[in-house]
Specification:
170 residues, alpha+beta, Aminopeptidase, Acyl_CoA_acyltransferase, transferase activity, GNAT_dom, transferase, EC 2.-.-.-
Length: 170
């Protein structure tokens, strides 16, 4: 993969994660309202690169407010798709920034990189995230039982959702 371009929406900017973003991203990741839905970060996160994953910091008015990433499963062109994940600072929840960041990234993945299908897999209990993903066109595929362990080692169900390029709500 090549260097990730900066992506812009009406209110948010997705900038490739840089060293000066690390402390702020880690602080957001460790906030209890974010940590509830994410596994414990590795000691070197986000400094350590994750091969095959493109990571962005989400900015609003010059302030770092969150994180979004995507990865591709493109080994076989007949099954090619991209997956994404994100989190936002709880101080900016319910203001549309997550929805906008998803739309900006989805537009890039569909329009520029020609992905036909995108996936995301929130925990079944993360109803706010699921509502956000549905608002841009993601549809429920099914529940993946005991899909991932939370930070306490408890198995949690995940909801597999996908979005076809032709269903994307801009």
């Amino acid at each position: 993969m090549t260097t990730a371009p900066e992506l812009r929406g009406p209110r948010v900017v997705l900038a490739p994660v840089a060293a000066d973003h690390h402390a702020r991203l880690r602080a957001i990741h460790l906030h209890p309202d974010v940590a509830e839905w994410w596994q414990n970060p590795a000691d070197d996160w986000p400094a350590a690169p994750e091969p095959g994953t493109i990571r962005y910091s989400i900015f609003h008015d010059g302030n770092l407010i969150g994180f979004i990433q995507w990865y591709a499963d493109d080994d076989n062109p007949d099954f090619r798709h991209a997956g994404l994940d994100l989190f936002l600072d709880p101080a900016v929840h319910r203001r549309g920034f997550g929805r906008e960041a998803i739309r900006v990234l989805c537009a890039h993945l569909i329009d520029d990189l020609k992905f036909h299908r995108l996936i995301i897999d929130p925990e079944v209990e993360n109803t706010a995230a699921i509502a956000c993903y549905r608002s841009v066109g993601f549809r429920d595929v099914g529940v993946m039982r005991e899909y991932s362990r939370d930070r306490h080692g408890e198995w949690k169900d995940g909801l597999l959702m996908d979005l076809l390029a032709r269903e994307f709500i801009r």
